[in-house]
Amino acid sequence: MHLFEKVVAASWPPSRWADCTVLVAVSGGADSVALLRSLAAIQESGPGRLVAVHVDHNLREESNADAQFVAQLAQQLGIEAIMGRVDFELSGPDGIEAAARSARYDFLRTFAMDSGARYVVTGHTADDQIETVLQRILRGTSIAGLSAIPRARELEPGISLLRPLLSIRRSEVEAYLADLGQDFRHDGTNDESCFFRNRLRNELLPLLREAYLPQVDQSLLRLAIGAAECREYVESQASQLLAACLLQATDEQVVLDAKELGDASPFLAKEACVLLWRQRDWPRQAMSREKWEALSALIAGDSPAPFELPGGVRAEKKGEQLLLTPLS
């Protein structure tokens, strides 16, 4: 067994998924090809199956060739391949990359539910983690944001999104593929500096390594690990606070004990509300710092007038109760 495959097996023991359907997101790039090759190599016998899923965003002239490459690779490995195509709105507020990512995950989520998959795995590496941490630092973020890409999260009830390569550097990925004599597709748009993340990868990180701190990659990874540990602790405390404050929860309305919520630290009270928003699947993208502060002021009684939050959630305080009512 190749050392790379041993590392992947240690990260995600094949015994855990030997009886599951696993969807492997394969773009054709080095990271996802290495992921598919390594999982195919370490897969144990059992009722489970690997399925290579390629999603065509129809953004590049080479898209058809990428799909053909993935289909041929899956055939060589004896793995089922699913070719998907997504259309999305190019004029979204977060740009093309974010819109494409959202459409891709929507496709993976839907196909996972339809196929009864237990896991969806992607080829994100430590380099993706480094770029994400730096990007969020520059744009401004919270402790949760500094923890960057989680190794695992729930995609849907019973379906986990997993990233087995998150501790592996991209140089190790390319060395593994070279040892196998395995080619891969190169996305030329990654070399273009018109996208913010590409400029970080191609210009800023090399500058930081050369002129400021050669160990900047390791520093950013340590920051992400420390932030993730803080986030886990805060989330556990926020979960306890939310459970203690929750008086009623229906599709029509959520009622919280505003006094107990207000007695907690403002930071923890906000995190409890963030957790509630996530649990209720209320829109969080437009919940800026100012909106959370307005909600905190309402809880504290500093702003008694009810108001509507982004996504159509009406916030109102009656006595010592906070009423949150979805209006749509």
Task: Write down the Rg.
Answer: 22 Å
Shape: globular
Which stretches are low in confidence, meaning pLDDT under 50 for 5 or more residues running?
none
Number of helices: 12
Share of helical residues: 40-55%
Quote the average pLDDT. 91
> What structural category do the secondary elements indicate?
alpha/beta
Give the total of beta strands: 11
Strand content: 15-25%
- The CATH superfamily of the largest domain turns out to be HUPs
The SSE order reads: HEHEHEHEHHEEHHHEEHHHEEE
Named CATH architecture of the largest domain: 3-Layer(aba) Sandwich
What is the CATH topology classification name of the largest domain? Answer: Rossmann fold
Number of domains: 2
Strand order of the largest sheet: 3-2-1-4-6-5
Q: Termini distance?
A: 55 Å
Q: Specify the biggest β-sheet.
A: 6 strands, mixed
**What's the CATH C level of the largest domain?**
Alpha Beta
Structure description:
- The structure is a single chain.
- With 328 residues, the protein is of the alpha/beta class.
- It has 2 domains: 3-125 and 149-198, HUPs (Rossmann fold), CATH 3.40.50.620; 235-326, Chorismate Mutase Domain, subunit A (Up-down Bundle).
- The protein is built from 12 helices and 11 strands.
- The strands form 2 sheets. Strands 3-2-1-4-6-5 form a 6-stranded mixed beta sheet, sandwiched between helices. Strands 7-8-11-10-9 form a 5-stranded antiparallel beta sheet.
- Helix 5 (126-139) crosses helix 8.
- The longest helix has 30 residues, at 216-245.
- The mean pLDDT is 91.
